[in-house]
Amino acid sequence: MALRMQVYIGLLYQDLVAQHKLSKHGKLPPVLPIVLYHGRQPWNAATELTELMLPPPAGTGELPGAPTLPAD
Fold first, then answer.
1. What pTM was computed for the model?
2. Taking Cα atoms as reference points, which of 46, 37, 35, 39 lies closest to residue 2?
3. What span, in angstroms and rounded, lies between the C-alpha atoms of 66 and 1?
4. Which DSSP helix (H) or strand (E) runs through 11?
């Protein structure tokens, strides 16, 4: 579910940009995804994207959500 939520948020942001519906400062709005679960078993799916990923190589410091560092 964590990956699916990231996809949905990304698609929402793409749509907002395409429709020119950014804030008056040209920024995207914050999104608080909420999942309503009504299964019989306790929820056991990942809630963070990092739970689905291998750890970064030692010393690289690369993590999801980390700033993009362009190389000029």
1. 0.74
2. 46
3. 21
4. helix 2-18
